[in-house]
Amino acid sequence: MDEDSLVVAYDAKRGEPRKGGNVKSEERGDCINCFKCVAVCPTGIDIRNGIQMECIACTSCIDACNEIMRITNKPKGLIRYESENGLKGKKKIFWKMKTNIYLGLTIFSVIGLFLFIFNRSGLDITVLRAHESPYQVLETAKEKTLIANHFTLNFKNQSTEKIEVDIIRSEHIISKEIEVIAVTLPVTIPPGQAKKNHIFIKFPKSILEGRSYHKFILHIVTKSKERTQKYRKEITLAGPV
């Protein structure tokens, strides 16, 4: 706040000296010292003492004072929205450098918000490893051990239309003998709603290449009336060393 900021203010130049005491009638200001502005103030301050921290700018004092001015046949606005420079009779400057900065920041924020809304993904995907053991050894054959990982997929439809979500098997998955088991997929999700699904990924131990983990790309596809979208989600397959 500076000297050009609009606040609820009392025009002391016009209102002083107030009625009462030894003030001659011809020297009196427009304030008749009725204390209406104090009586209606919810925080109990006297706005005539200047700008105060307790003022909540409810303008009750403005309405009360304007009513008294009407009764006494005096111009309204003894208490009004005004700047400090305005009360001093100086030129009001509302368009300053900081105003341009605030306006620019507001415009960029609004543009950024619209870009985020229009460009955000129609599907929010969260992949979590199940709470049980990180992997299970399903069966062991000669020179071949199969391992299974259990994951929970949380899908949230952020679009405005109903979509169908499914997992696709790429040639890369088939070549490495990785099997994605998703009994509950495909699933249809209404707009603005979320659904949880469980998947199991079965793979031979040989793809770990002597390590306890392997990076794997899960391919997810969504279909709606207007378009089809594909998503890639990286997960980590775990197994014994």
From TrEMBL:
Asked if the record carries the keyword Iron-sulfur, the reply is yes
GO MF annotation: an example = metal ion binding
Q: Which UniProt keywords apply?
A: 4Fe-4S, Electron transport, Iron, Iron-sulfur, Membrane, Metal-binding, Transmembrane, Transmembrane helix, Transport
Database matches in InterPro entries = 4Fe4S_Fe-S-bd, 4Fe4S_Fe_S_CS, Electron_Trans/Redox, FixG_C, Ig-like_fold
Q: Looking at the keywords, is Transmembrane helix present?
A: yes
**Pfam assignment, any one:** Fer4_18
The protein depicted here goes by the name Polyferredoxin
